[in-house]
Structure formats: structure tokens, C-alpha cells
Amino acid sequence: MKRTSLFAYLWIALCGLSSVALATPSMAERPAPFPKTIHYAPLPMNNPAFNLAKSQVLTQYLQAKLHIQVIPKLYDNYEDILTAFQQGEVELIELGPLVYFTLQSQTEHATPLVSVKHHPQEEYYQCVLAAPIDGINHLESPPTQPAYKVALTQPLSTCGWLMTQHLLEKHGLHLETLPSQYLGSHEAVAMALIRKEHQIGGLARFIAERYANLGLRILDTSEPLPQFIMVANNAKLSADERNALQAALLDYRSNEQTPMGIYGFNPFSEKLFDRFQSIVAQNPHTQQYALKQEAVHR
Questions:
Q1: pTM, whole model, 2 decimals?
Q2: Domains of the chain from N-terminus onward
Q3: pLDDT digits (tens, 9 = 90+) for 216-243
Q4: The sheet that has 110-116: what strands, in order across it?
């Protein structure tokens, strides 16, 4: 009886192990070992409600695709986003080219995943100089009227000091000689021009076009620039997690019935930054100046 009982126990144990093995999914079937929660910081915007709604479209997609929790975290400016990234408070952020270069100079933990499409038909990004529709028609140097008052987004914004200065120089003007004001977002610049609080503003072309029918005129447009970038925090996410996140973003297709400003993603390529790097090289003081101005305006 003892021998029979021993064989019985062994048989039960083996059957139990087999059933556990059958019930356990294979490695290929298991989802990527993500942390329980990913925090995503979108671009800083003047309208928190719109920014949250836009972010939720993407985060809900990632949650369904990867079976993880994705929580949007909104910040008022780029410097706060960079600080949160370096302190490990966020795992995924969206940045413009200039801010991305700034982050690269501050940490080794920034891994670019994809480029963001803000327009369904375009593979690049542009900045513009804009004015009220019934304001100035063209730029003059020196201006025949009192010095142009310039509206800017943020010091670290690509369409902020860097590209506004770059476009003004084409017309013989220098931003440092003109009165200027940082308003915080592209939308705020557009509205300030529509209200005629400023004579000139620097902002993204797709935002200027969105507000054109409210009374905005584009005076000049930059050359094509790199798109915005989704950047992963490699101190918080493993290579497998980053690859799964990248694949999910590249599979994303926007719902054209409810466009929220993101129309999908393209693979990230360093080659797209060659032209932009040359512009930065022509204005070597811009990044240092932007960092100082960002600190002043915090």
C-alpha cells in the first residue's frame, strides 16, 4: 500500500505539472513585460482640456494595444517636461527637434522611437512668421512703423527663438533688437496675433493654418524641418518594452472622424535632422540662450 500510495502521489504531481505547463502561455504569446503604468507627457499647450482629450486618444489606443495602463501627465513648459523625464517621472514624451537635442545633451537615457505626423499628407514640419490678416503685408528692414512686437511660443520651442530669428534674418531683421514676449504655446501666439496684441509671431505652420480663417496671415515659411519625436526613457523601459511601444505607435492610425492633431507616426531617422542641425550650427548661441530664457520664464 505504501508503494502504491507513493506511485499515486508521483502520478498526481506529474499530472499537475503538465497541466500547469499547458496552461502557461508560450513566450511568443506573452505580452511584453511592461511596468504596470506608463506616464506620457504630450507637448505643452495653452488649452489643458484639449491637450488632455488629444492625449487620451493616443493613450487609450496604447492601453488596448499593449494591455497596459497609460496615464497622460500635462506640463506647462518644456523645461518641466525635461526635468520630469530626468527624474524618472515619465516614460514617454513628445518633443520638438530643438528640445530633443537639448535633452540629448543632458542625459543618455533618451531613446527616439518614432516621428509624429501632425498633418496627414506631409512628412515634415515647418515654422512660419505670421501677422494679423489686416496687419503688415511684408517685413521691412528697418520697419517703417514702430518696432515690430514679436510673439513667441517658448524658449525651447523649435518655432520659438531659433526659427523666428532664422526667418527674420532673411528679411534683414534681428530678433534681439525687437521687443518680444513668450506666450507659452503655438495656440497662444495665434490668438495674440488675431487680437492684434503683437505685429509678428513665430509658430508652427499647421497651427497657423488652423487659425487662418480667424484672421491670421502667413508672411514667411521655413524650409522643411524634422517632425516632432516620441522619446522613450531607457532608464525606465527595457529594450523589449521600447520595441513593443515603437511597433504599436507605427501601427497607429488616427480616427479621421475625431482628429486630435496626430495622424500617425513615421520611423525615426537621424538623416531627417541634417538640415535642422545646419540651422542650429548657424545659430550656435540659440540653444544656450533658450535654456537661460526658459529658466527666467519658469
A1: 0.69
A2: 37-120+226-296 (3.40.190.10), 127-221 (3.40.190.10)
A3: 999 999 988 888 899 999 999 999 999 9
A4: 69-72, 37-41, 92-95, 228-233, 110-116, 265-267
